[in-house]
């Protein structure tokens, strides 16, 4: 076996230094596309192959499950090449196919299988599958290893059952989504329901505090955790129990984190506890055979709304490196070459991000040619924008033989923007996939079957039980279910215990008693075989024996047919999971289904145009990128427009978008847009003003060059108040009105509303107005909108 890693020749000297670093803390900071993720992957490979680190001693945290999977595949490929060279003296591809397969499978077992690579959530779920039974929260709640993971919709179902069931309140006033959001916020700030209650001056806040307390109890009764708990509980468990922390600290000698700029405090705590065994990071000095390696880019920090905090990255050296001598050189590597994008694209990205004040300036040298100019296009409205984009994609795909559909991405600020693009893509029969649309695992039929499976492993999961008790219909009505739920509450038993007690079912089940008993017996049969069957076989049995598939067949509609296909796909997912994972029991399969994230659904094998939000595009790259909807209030989002820190985050998001492009970048905006139901004139994004015209083909709408109708006059406005229909279409110029938050206005289409935000000043002013009912909040340009003061 050779002693120098030939694969290190695929790296530049700085990357190599990062990869070859063995013990101690190391921070890699660098701009987009400079090979940070590549360095992290190669480092894992290098630790195993050349430092002989046991793969089981490595923990690598990636941003998506998909990135985790890719990292494993990449390591397997690197090693297989290497082993082929070492053992046969020739490249892998020169071996007969059977030997290739055997070699790769051997490599996988020896070097890859035991690696822990995944998202924070997936890794925490894995730790808790080992140790959650040793944890007790401060209210005395406990969980078993069979716990369910409640995704956002399960969590909201639980909140709703508390609001409408236990507290008998209106779910419109206490919307489950916003209540759940408030609870999540409190949890992440470390507040107990009692502490949260003390902060609440009004009735609504006190009700939310009450729901919060009940929510915690109910989650524990369901033997379930929500996404927040998945991160918080391991941290608390480690703080509570030294020997458990000691075990995991000892196990994970090398911890690596990608996209470290988007780490929040809880995730930081987890990393720090694991690395230092609970000691304060600053005094930690025991780096023998141990490392902490994080990579990130402060300019790409885009998750502050989920409490991510990029100062954690900025403090890394100080934090983990204080105990070291020469910490400057030992704990920091900067990568300064960009391998992804052409020089034009890079210059564009740099020009934009320089407008942020909160950043550390850094060098990013292009390694590729100048490339094509950036194309900026202004469309009439969102439909014309979509037609332009799809037209370009079709033309380029035809003209350039080496461009495939998968090489194009359309990136937007909000999910709602995808609709117009989808319509035109369908019209032109261009294959596409929307990343972060309804996740496969969020579809009703898939969630139903998963709920059956969750009941098989975790019978306390009442949220799942209630989902399937009458799905497919088995004549168990709402009144019966309510009676059973009340009985369970009075007897202080999980609902499941009531169902398996024939006496209780007879008493409370009324005419449905027989149906209930058959249902319970069926679940018990599956529970009895669950440990001995692979997940895919159980999926199959549950789908058929529950009558679910039969019910879909008898519906006979196209929709039912689609649902059946999705269920077949679920079985395929289980089969695939078994292929890819040694430990592929039902429990781990269910865990992976709950944690599949938006960005994971981007399927590389399929040749499709990708549509996704800018947030989902992090870490990815595409030869051709369309950055669409560059308009005030949309991007930057209106909520950020009067908050300088939030505006900087929007700018970072734009930087992320630009730097996804490898060869060609298009930027588009529209004169008017129908969004959230109403058509509004649109003002070009201020980010467009910040881009250098010389890099752009097409006119950037720089301030002052815009063609705008003149501002409305006071007198025209007041005459319109009297009779909106007779308002003269052209309005004479007048000094702009100084709009005030709180002021009431009359809009010709939306009626009376109140100003909630005023953005910018003078000629550049736009305002946000809240209108009653479903119209909601709108961002308007007061010079163009049919608006009068009241
Ligand atoms: P981001 O900040 O967007 O996450 P990154 O810094 O993680 O980007 P990578 O995705 O690792 O960058 O790399 C960007 C591209 O450059 C990839 O296609 C990668 O394969 C390529 N690349 C990285 N390093 C090198 C190198 N030394 N030589 C050639 N290509 C490289
Ligand atoms: Mg990366």
Structural summary, described in words:
The chain is of the alpha/beta class and 790 residues long. It has five domains: 15-114 and 253-335, Rossmann fold (3-Layer(aba) Sandwich), CATH 3.40.50; 123-236, Orthogonal Bundle (Arc Repressor Mutant, subunit A), CATH 1.10.10; 349-437 and 604-698, P-loop containing nucleotide triphosphate hydrolases (Rossmann fold, 3-Layer(aba) Sandwich), CATH 3.40.50.300; 440-595, PCRA, domain 4 (Orthogonal Bundle); 743-789. The chain is 46% helix and 14% strand. The protein is built from 31 helices and 24 strands. Strands 13-14-12-15-16-11-19 form a seven-stranded parallel sheet, sandwiched between helices. A six-stranded parallel sheet has the order 3-2-6-7-1-8, sandwiched between helices. The longest helix is centred in the N-terminal third of the chain and has 24 residues, at 65-88. It is globular and about 80 Å long. The termini are far apart. Residues 703-734 have low confidence and may be disordered. The structure holds adenosine-5'-triphosphate and magnesium ion (MG). Magnesium ion is lined by residues 36-37, 619. It is an enzyme of class 5 (isomerase). Keywords: ATP-binding, DNA-binding, Helicase, Hydrolase, Isomerase, Nucleotide-binding.
